[in-house]
TrEMBL record:
GO MF annotation list: DNA binding
A Gene Ontology BP annotation from the UniProt entry: DNA integration
Matching InterPro entries: Transposase_Tc1-like (IPR002492)
Protein name: Transposable element Tc1 transposase
Domain called Transposase Tc1-like: residue spans: 52-116
Length: 135
């Protein structure tokens, strides 16, 4: 696109990248004739692909497993954030149980109607109702 005369801003908008990234890529291309990543850029990996698969498998098999348990089972000196990042890359996110089921607007409306219909009941009328917290 740059060789066709496009501006850096137009190329950046087309490929959905920042102008700085496009400019750096173009400068590397004109300087070195390549746009490949340089060897050694970024942090070195602490886990192998096999260990990554083991992390994913443990998270899928036991939904209640913790990051520290996974770290101990894998046997690699990694921080819990690394495990979270690996799980997030595989679209596995932590799931916490609901304290209560979320109510839809329809449920809220039905509850309100039920309460309004019984708002004029006295104590003796309420003694005829049985309330339970069971599902």
């Amino acid at each position: 696109m740059k060789t066709a005369g496009w501006s850096t801003r137009r190329v950046a908008g087309q490929v959905d990248r920042s102008e700085c990234a496009v400019r750096n890529c173009w400068e590397q291309w004109t300087r070195e004739g390549t746009h490949a990543w340089k060897n050694g850029s970024g942090a070195t990996r602490k886990t192998t692909r096999k260990e990554d698969r083991r992390i994913m498998r443990q998270a899928l098999v036991d939904l209640t497993v913790t990051r520290s348990t996974i770290r101990a089972d894998v046997g690699v000196a990694i921080v819990p954030q690394t495990i979270s990042r690996h799980l997030a890359e595989a679209n596995l996110k932590s799931k916490r149980p609901f304290r209560a089921l979320p109510l839809t607007p329809e449920h809220r409306q039905l509850r309100l109607q039920w309460g309004q219909a019984r708002s004029m009941l006295n104590v003796t009328d309420w003694q005829n109702f049985v309330f339970s917290d069971e599902s």
